[in-house]
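Dear H.,

Thanks for agreeing to be a second pair of eyes. The structure we're designing against is below in token form, covering all 88 positions.
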């Protein structure tokens, strides 16, 4: 998100496009975290966040406003879940 925030501040198309590509790479990487059988609650949370990254990249590609509100909500749920697991 830091790369995206910096790109938004710069308002340069090249920076925004690069940040959107970074969203796509991050989504792909996140999905690899769920390839092994494991916690059935973790996978859907990760896939939601990955989809949010894809949606934000798609919005940028279509030159639409990129909203981070869904991402923020889903990322918070994933953080809470992970924190609970770490604390257990």
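And this is the sequence the design step returned. I haven't edited it by hand at all.
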């Amino acid at each position: 998100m830091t790369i995206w925030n910096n790109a938004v501040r710069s308002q340069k198309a090249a920076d925004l496009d690069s940040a959107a590509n970074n969203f796509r790479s991050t989504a792909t990487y996140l999905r690899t975290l769920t390839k092994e059988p494991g916690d059935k609650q973790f996978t859907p949370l990760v896939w939601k966040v990955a989809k949010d990254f894809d949606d934000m990249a798609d919005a940028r590609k279509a030159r639409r406003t990129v909203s981070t509100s869904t991402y923020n909500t889903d990322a918070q749920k994933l953080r809470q879940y992970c924190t609970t697991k770490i604390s257990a």
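Two observations from my side: The radius of gyration is 14 Å. The CA atoms of residues 24 and 54 lie 6 Å apart.

Warmly,
E.
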